[in-house]
Amino acid sequence: MMKEKYYGVIVVGGGHAGVEASLASARMGVPTLIITIDNDSIGWMPCNPAIGGPGKSQVVREIDALGGAMAMTTDETLTQIKMLNTSRGPAVWSLRAQADKWAYSRKMKERLENQPNLHLRQGLVEKLIIENGKVKGVKVADGSIFYADAVVLTTGTYLRGRIYISSWSMEAGRWVKPPSNALSDQLKELGFKMSRFNTGTTPRVDKRSIDLSKFEEERGDFIPLHFSFWNKPKVYENQIPSYLGWTNEKTIEITRKYMHLSPSVAGLMVKTGPRTCPSMEEKVRWFPDKTRHQFFLEPEGFNTNEMYMQGMYMSMPYDMQLEVLRTIPGLENVEIIRPAYVIDYDYIIPTQLNLTYETKLIEGLFIAGQPNGTTGYDEAAGQGLLAGINAALKVQGKEPFILRRNEAYLGVMTDDLLTKELFEPYRITPSHCEYRQILRQDNADLRLTRKGYEIGVVEEWKFRIFEEKEQKLEEVKRILEETTIYPNKENVEKLKELDVKEINQPLTLFDLLKRQDFTKDTLKKLDSRFADIDDEILIEIEIEAKYAGYIQREMNKAKEFLRFESFEIPQDIDYNLVPSLSKEARIRLSEIKPKSIGQAMRITGVRPSDIQMLLMYLKERKGEENV
């Protein structure tokens, strides 16, 4: 074994999962190697150039709170940013940004190159080195061998990937990038249960060939915003717009005419893709009477004429893609720079993972991102971060880092992957989360940064910023709770001037913030002590005040949740010995081996009656009288 070829952690793949996994491991002081097919496409956005959105924004903020790079890099390279769902409650407020995909990739590569303890290597990993059920390293196609105590696979769509444009196809993990066929074959030989999903892209079109005056301009928000907690909010003056358009009857007619040439319709490939991003062919099949489907023209960067057609996924032949697009007003003369295509690929059934993203079958082997059956940059980055953290902790001989459903969207995603059957690529949304009021995007740092600092993944300078914010929150809240407004003539007139309803009893400023007609802006006008307080501090406290009842209700639910999470199930249990379990429950529980009753309750196919039988059995086994 050559010393220069030994690392604590090896990360395979340089996409969003691989970037966060390698950076996390290195920040924790573990010598880390990241091996990727192309060092010039690290952190690449092969689909639309966007970060965030409902559910995803919460994940990105949690990654950031744990020291990750996605949010900060987005702030540095964004072309547009806006806050979504502002007409609804703060539980679903979600940032979404579009980024310059070339600048984003360059900035991520720069971060990796300058991260202490992290080494980059370009190459195609063909084989895992396994000894006695443990991973020992990897073998690269050029014959190089690298050893490590842990390996994190973040191979995206490269596991036996194949792209299609109608009946034409080629093996590739992404356009003209070689797939990881040998690695996929080895995983199957090792005994991993695998399946296959697909995902698609849209045409990239030339902005110069489009009449943008026929589209509805979609601008970003020109107010102080930021994705990363470690950056100050600011107004991004150089944002560029995207454009909203609609299909019509002619678009659908032409799509229907050629849809039989789509590879999934023709039976040439697996049909299972993300329902939230249906292709034009699928839209015609699923909604036969609908002709008006929206799409967006999104710039791919500041210095390019390429535009991404979000919502126009397709896989018919090039000439026919062009014919479909030219039915739309404004696109009569459109030119396609890169045709749309679809790709299918192998993934590992994620119930074969532990909560740390380590596989149950091979010790020291972690898997994150699309190889787990998920889709989306944000989801991949979140899994990569958690896998990288836990790989580093394993190498260091420390306890694992596990986030539960009541602690983070990252915990929700992890638990879903381990307990739910996947019928399509997994994508996180607020509907997956039972505790939306307490797991908001604005308080991710308050929930997670201290945890991250304690395990060594959050850098010192970030933690100092966090401590200052935490102290300021406590100070401002104390002043609000200690300052009482009395219903005297002077105060009544002041409040009336500020359009606040009359008060008839003494109220603290914090109590006033609970009212809908009293906001942070009202507070600043009423009391000059708060005029220079950062809006983010006041927004945090205002949310806490106005939604106190909802937040408390969710916290009570979380306590009940923890009661079942803390009831551990012995890992040596034989479910065949549990009386009266349904056949499906026996199979699913034996496969997944849940760590707790709470996790067992969420497994697809396990019924409440099965849980009762399991509780009774464990009670007898443990000799407990109260469960």
TrEMBL record:
Its cofactor is FAD. The keyword Transcription regulation does not apply. Pfam families: GIDA, GIDA_C_1st, SAM_GIDA_C. Keywords: Cytoplasm, FAD, Flavoprotein, NAD, tRNA processing. GO terms for biological process: tRNA methylation; tRNA wobble uridine modification. The keyword Methyltransferase does not apply. GO terms for molecular function: flavin adenine dinucleotide binding. One of its GO terms (cellular component) is cytosol. Homodimer. Heterotetramer of two MnmE and two MnmG subunits. HAMAP family: MnmG_GidA (MF_00129). Belongs to the MnmG family. This is tRNA uridine 5-carboxymethylaminomethyl modification enzyme MnmG. It comes from Caldisericum exile (strain DSM 21853 / NBRC 104410 / AZM16c01).
